[in-house]
Write the structure tokens for this entry.
Amino acid sequence: MITVTPDIFRLAQVFTISRGSRTEARVLTVRVSRGGVTGWGECVPYARYGETLESVTAQIEGLDVGIDRLALQQALPAGAARNAVDCALWDLEAKMAGKRVWEVAGLAAPGPEITAYTLSLDTPENMRAAAAKNAFRPLLKIKLGTPDDMPRLEAVREGAPKTRIIIDANEGWTAEVYAELAPHLVAMGVALVEQPLPAGADDMLAEMARPLPVCADEAAHDCASLPNLKGKYDVVNIKLDKTGGLTEGLALKQAALAEGYGLMVGCMVGSSLAMAPATLLAQGVAFTDLDGPLLLAEDREDPLVFDAQGVHPPSAKFWG
């Protein structure tokens, strides 16, 4: 049996990127039950990729109830629907085998990974205050993506002078804006810039100097998207809601590393259930960005642990 239910998690504060703001995370929870055992997974349908709660629910409800992970890869395209079912099937398989998911997948036992903490787009004054409040964190991710971003970056650096910073423009800049900003980003000690130009309109990246690493996010989904990144990006952001689950996520990690890319493992804004499989994927990558639960005012029971060591893998009771 496969069931899918919508869940809503309130955010701790308004979360804003270049495309808009939100006050809650709307997710879908999928449960797959067989032989008295239930595995579960979560996805975040994303309008940027043409997904809605309703469309993703319909995709999941159209599946054969006995489907396995291998057949799932062909039954659904990369995206949120396949992600939730794939992760639920991994959880189910591990529970039925009496093992952890990383054992089933042939991976080493995972440990904690330092994760970025995201500051949403706001006025320079508010972003300075937010940076100062979170200056104890080793890695901050700043949401930018407007023509007037330098005062925001300067304010964040003032608020958190010693913290490593990565920037996510969410496709919000033009080639001209990015070319003008890039030297300043380097001077401000920015470690990485994520998706500065719109996916599909990013060919200029191959012709521009890249004085700091450029990460593909909206331009990178699954293994099939890798060829189009060549010469334009240095790092690939793997998100399970884009790859369509842990199965393709692991394949993309291996393929991207083989082609010489650095890796980031990121997330949509979701609960600990969405982050749990991604903690396995994040082992040893250059940048981990699994702060979704830290942005929520509420989470699931027995959630992931976040502490000075970073985000910890899930307990056996919770997932995997």
User: Anything to note?
Assistant: The chain has ten helices and 13 strands.
